Amino acid sequence: MTRIIAGRARSVRLSVPSVGTRPTSERVREALFSTLDAWDAISGAHVLDLYAGSGALGLEAASRGASSVVLVERNAKAAGLCRTNAAAVQRALGPRPTPIDVSTRSVRAHLTTATPPVDLVLVDPPYDVSEQDIADDLAAIARLLSAGGVIVVERSSRSPEPTWPTGIEAIRKRAYGETTLWFAESPAPESDEAERSETSRASD
């Protein structure tokens, strides 16, 4: 069973495609969102969930206070489940739910026409998506990402580090068995950096 872990839509059950997707385990999602919460990277953020599958990552962000969420999933059946899951989450969020859109397009097509700013991008491609395709996705994401914005890439632990484009800095790697999370950011202006606490994203 896949469910929302925390926030205003906590415990809402999510439908998952029977084939063609690789849902993120609850353990990995909990670790991912605990990190993002500690960085204050979710509340008020405009979020993109790429290769969304069931939409579990983007919908978790909606539950935890994101300002808007876009789920990008080209598979029509999976996109239908994203809409069903989004409706369930929005009902749980009450009278002022987070806007949640579902884009039934390829990731590349969506990124080509998307407009900035985006504050948090969650990238969970199928393992058969090539490293070059991911690098191209990240280059497209870079033009959309706000200053201080965060990218998270979920990959097999056997895969190499993603190729980060100019202007994007890797800040953390965490492995959970067969899954590795890579975190990167578009650095904030120096004035904002000076205001950060001693427990920075790179070192915490």
TrEMBL record:
Composition bias (Basic and acidic residues) maps to 194-204
Per its record, what are the GO molecular function terms? Answer: 16S rRNA (guanine(966)-N(2))-methyltransferase activity
Gene name, per UniProt, is rsmD
Residue ranges of the region described as Disordered: 183-204
Q: Which enzyme type, at the first EC level?
A: transferase
Q: What is this protein called?
A: 16S rRNA (Guanine(966)-N(2))-methyltransferase RsmD
Q: Which NCBIfam families match?
A: 16S rRNA (guanine(966)-N(2))-methyltransferase RsmD
Question: What EC number(s) does the entry state?
Answer: 2.1.1.171
Per UniProt, which keywords does this protein have? Methyltransferase, Transferase
Q: Tell me the SUPFAM superfamilies matching this sequence.
A: S-adenosyl-L-methionine-dependent methyltransferases
Please name the InterPro entries in this protein's record.
RNA_MeTrfase_RsmD, SAM-dependent_MTases_sf
